[in-house]
Design a protein that fits this description.
Blueprint lengths: L10 H18 L8 H21 L6 H37 L10 H20 L3 H17 L8 H4 L8 H24 L2 H21 L4 H33 L7 H29 L4 H19 L10
Helix pairs in contact: 1-2, 1-5, 2-3, 2-8, 3-4, 3-5, 3-9, 7-8, 7-11, 8-9, 9-10
Length: about 325
């Protein structure tokens, strides 16, 4: 999929194209072989997150009713798959600890934990596959959203008639981009003040929103915006690993049978805490880079990028390259 705004593509056309492609992709994986069910869930949830991020980017161009309905619909659809995806996340967390500290551990340490988490994931996926309604509900929800989006007018002048229309101007994304950035900045501060798992997870969501928005806006100045998107991707991965480890620690506390050896449980807790401490330091370093600007400065900077794009589109530069 091409997830970027086209070089000369109007904003409304680009948002509609990308969101429809994502919705189609999010549903298509469930028609593949059952062995790829886990990957289908992962891809579907990723697609939904990207669509929600783009809706937030142009929220000012949508009516409040449309935004709330579409955002809630996508959120609820993603939640149908959250528990299944979580089983893979905690398994990844256990495997990463074993791999990171393997040279320091006795052979077979945490193997029982990993085996039981793997069995738990397989059982959860099997139950989901045998559920006669789950996949159908997800696919139908994404297909209905696809058909709704296909009817959206791309001419902003249609707003007077349809109540929906995205202007092809920076003003159409300014408030959405600024809000995403401001919320990310704020949730980062809250996370480090509280140290709470939920607060770090909330920050991760805002990081992902901004990453997907940067990926869409990358053509404004690829050398700069792509670098920002890559940093946000890395930051999101770090925060994701931290969240999976925290979730696994909580799971082991409630289900000690997953790691029946009390010494291994104690060792895992110590190593997970050490890893989470390192991850949170790394996240703060990247976060300080991403959120170094005041929100108004970021808004002004991207406004200039958009203005440069318009200048390129309105100019004839046959002998000078600016890309």
């Amino acid at each position: 999929m091409n997830l970027k705004l086209g070089e000369a593509e109007p904003l409304g056309v680009g948002v509609k194209r990308v969101t429809m492609d994502l919705l189609e992709h999010g549903a298509s994986g469930f028609f593949d072989d059952e062995t790829a069910f886990g990957e289908a869930i992962h891809e579907s949830r990723k697609s939904i997150k990207r669509v929600r991020a783009l809706l937030r980017l142009v929220r000012g161009e949508l009516t409040d009713e449309i935004f709330r309905f579409e955002n809630r619909s996508l959120r609820d659809t993603s939640r149908l798959l959250a528990a299944i995806r979580s089983t893979q996340g905690v398994l990844n967390a256990a495997t990463s600890i074993q791999e990171l500290y393997g040279d320091l551990l006795a052979e077979g340490t945490f193997s029982t934990l990993i085996e039981r988490l793997s069995h738990r994931r397989d059982l959860t996926e099997l139950q989901a596959l045998e559920d006669p309604n789950l996949v159908g509900r997800v696919v139908r929800s994404l297909e209905r959203a696809y058909h709704r989006y296909s009817s959206w007018p791309t001419d902003h002048e249609a707003r007077e008639v349809y109540g929906l229309g995205i202007r092809n101007s920076y003003e159409a994304i300014d408030s959405g981009l600024s809000t995403t950035y401001t919320r990310g900045r704020l949730t980062m501060v809250i996370a480090y003040r509280s140290g709470g798992v939920g607060d770090f997870h909330a920050w991760r969501k805002r990081v992902k929103d901004m990453r997907h928005q940067m990926e869409f806006l990358a053509p404004l100045w690829p050398e700069v915006v792509v670098g920002t998107a890559l940093t946000l991707e890395r930051l999101g991965d770090i925060l994701g690993e931290d969240h999976d480890l925290a979730e696994l620690q909580s799971l082991i506390d409630s289900r000690p049978d997953l790691c029946p050896n009390p010494r291994e449980r104690s060792l895992f807790r110590a190593l997970a805490n050490q890893r989470r401490s390192e991850l949170q330091v790394a996240a703060e370093i990247l976060g300080r880079r991403i959120y170094a600007e005041k929100p108004k400065a970021l808004s002004a900077r991207f406004g200039e990028y958009w203005g440069a794009r318009e200048l390129v589109l309105g100019s004839s530069l046959d002998t000078v390259a600016v890309h």
